[in-house]
């Protein structure tokens, strides 16, 4: 198939547009990207202000993402990893919880955090083990429901859902009712459990720069 027969235009030089162009070029086509702004990356951008790197909004790269593994060179990005946990601020107090199986330093803070009951913590361990065995294709082929009803069906207490799952996943789903599909919850949760949340040393904007 000759690419000379086709004129392909991609609207937007965000991550999706850049990867689309990459795939097309790998298959012999020469697409043109049309971008409304003066820079690439869409929402994935980093500004340098007075010597400080300022990422646009809060974004991290999950190293287990299949597409990231396929299209990015992690070594070149010099990824800086976050600890596998979360810090929760409630009633003026700061509490850190996480996966002690991946970072033993999180064991005591997680056990005595006051976030969720002991039963909730056991259920999290069970959820971790179950999703590690479940493939991504099986996740998206499974029946779906809201994330909230999914967590309730798993037996998590409403306090655990309110104190941890809702604030954590609201920032990912961009909605605070946990109405997002349970399929997406399982996928994101699995990615957090199998990889690390990280940022390129040069800021999140290094990702579109590398793709370009």
Write the layout of secondary structure elements.
Elements lengths: L8 E3 L3 H12 L5 E3 L11 E4 L2 E4 L5 E2 L3 H6 L2 H4 L1 E3 L3 E6 L2 E6 L8 H5 L6 H16 L2 H6 L5 H7 L4 H16 L8 H13 L2 E4 L5 H6 L1
Parallel strand pairs: 1-2
Antiparallel strand pairs: 3-4, 5-9, 6-9, 7-8
Outline: globular
| SS elements, strand count | 9
Oligomer: single chain
Major sheet: arrangement of strands: 5-9-6
Count of discrete alpha- or pi-helical segments spanning 4 or more residues: 10
Which sequence of SSEs, written as H and E, runs from N to C? EHEEEEHHEEEHHHHHHEH
Structural class: alpha+beta
Q: Biggest sheet, in brief? A: 3 strands, antiparallel
Average pLDDT, rounded to a whole number, is 92
Rg calc: 20 Å
Residues in β-strands, percent: 15-25%
Q: Low-confidence parts lasting 5 or more residues at pLDDT below 50? A: none
Helix share of residues?
40-55%
Total domains: 2
State the end-to-end CA separation: 25 Å
Descriptive report:
The strands form 4 sheets. A 3-stranded antiparallel sheet has the order 5-9-6. A two-stranded parallel ribbon has the order 1-2. Helix content is 43%, strand content 17%. It has 10 helices and 9 strands. By secondary structure, it is of the alpha+beta class. The model has no long low-confidence stretch (mean pLDDT 92). Strand 7 and strand 8 form a beta hairpin. The chain has 2 domains: 68 residues, no CATH class; 112 residues, no CATH class. The longest helix has 16 residues.
């Amino acid at each position: 198939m000759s690419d000379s027969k086709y004129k392909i235009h991609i609207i937007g030089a965000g991550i999706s547009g850049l990867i689309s162009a990459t795939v097309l070029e790998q298959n012999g086509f020469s697409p043109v990207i049309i971008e409304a702004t003066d820079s690439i990356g869409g929402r994935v951008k980093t500004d340098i202000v007075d010597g400080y790197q300022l990422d646009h909004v809060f974004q991290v790269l999950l190293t287990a993402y299949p597409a990231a593994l396929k299209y990015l060179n992690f070594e070149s990005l010099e990824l800086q990893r976050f600890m596998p946990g979360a810090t929760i601020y409630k009633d003026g107090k700061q509490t850190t919880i996480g996966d002690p199986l991946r970072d033993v330093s999180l064991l005591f803070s997680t056990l005595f955090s006051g976030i969720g009951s002991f039963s909730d913590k056991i259920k999290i361990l069970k959820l971790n083990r179950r999703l590690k065995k479940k493939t991504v294709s099986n996740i998206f082929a499974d029946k779906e429901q809201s994330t909230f009803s999914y967590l309730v069906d798993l037996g998590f207490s409403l306090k655990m859902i309110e104190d941890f799952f809702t604030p954590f996943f609201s920032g990912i789903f961009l909605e605070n009712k946990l109405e997002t599909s349970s399929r997406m919850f399982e996928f994101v949760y699995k990615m957090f459990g199998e990889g690390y949340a990280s940022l390129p040393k040069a800021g999140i904007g290094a990702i579109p720069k590398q793709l370009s």
